[in-house]
Request: fold
Amino acid sequence: MYIKIFGWILLIAGLILIGWTLFNSYNVFTAKSQPPEFFKAEKAVSAGQGKIGSQDIQAQLEKMIGEQLKGLLPADTLPKMLNLTVWSMLAFILISGGGQISGIGIKLMKNRNESKIH
Reply:
């Protein structure tokens, strides 16, 4: 009897985990909520005006490249894409884990029912 109750608990826990993950994924991908921030965009620090020589040229080159890239991609695009990718992987792991937990619960209930028949 206790095994059957434990099987039901595992089945319900796995289904809750799957449902919670799907609900949060739906909210993230419909922009109702933000994905967890694993990566953050760093603010660019402007180079000092007193530098001379190759460091000054390098700073100017980095600034020009940065300005060109801003025209192609907004500054926070890469971190957002990385955050969505990590959330997708995490959601996959949570859904798989919920399926495994539910599967164990079903096996416990099935084994308990088979032992009653024999």
